[in-house]
Amino acid sequence: DFLDATQLTDVSELQYADVSNVVLIHGFLRGCHYITSEMLKDAIGGWNLGNLQIIEQFAYYSDSFTDLSFFEKQTFPKLYSLWQAFSEMKTITSLHGLENADFSHVTNMVSTFNGCVALSDMTALSNKDLSSVTSMELCFNNCRFTNVDFLAGVNPTSLTDVTAMLRNCILLQNVDGLSGWASHITAMAEN
Asked: What pLDDT, on a 0 to 100 scale, did the predictor assign at position 189?
């Protein structure tokens, strides 16, 4: 990985990497300030991540991405954990790139988008199957969307912990998308 490679400016050679057996991506581009969504799309957009099970701190504390378009061809059929996956990606405004992602096996969404202070377009999460997710603690902490309508079509039947899920979402005006969620929730402090 390129953990804390703060001066990294070229990732084009990554297109040749065989990642077909990778099951965990952790801290891959953490702290990289000069790699953009478009550069990464060119470099890893064609990767085969069919065996990937866990994404953690993908580009933690990076401030040059606008979206997740580098994942737009991925379905992630074996993915089960998104713990801090896109946390602290301070400049992403959209989740574009996750439209095809299969979240039906994901159990952990703790802090998945925590600290994404520019994130406002959540459309890619609309109608996702979140039936296996048990915790969304701090999942959207500090995000900038105005409503949670994108969560209206999900099926949170296993979800029990939403502690601080929407903490510091200062632009949030409407929570209608959470209608019907209360029957499963056992922990929801600080929301």
From this structure: 66
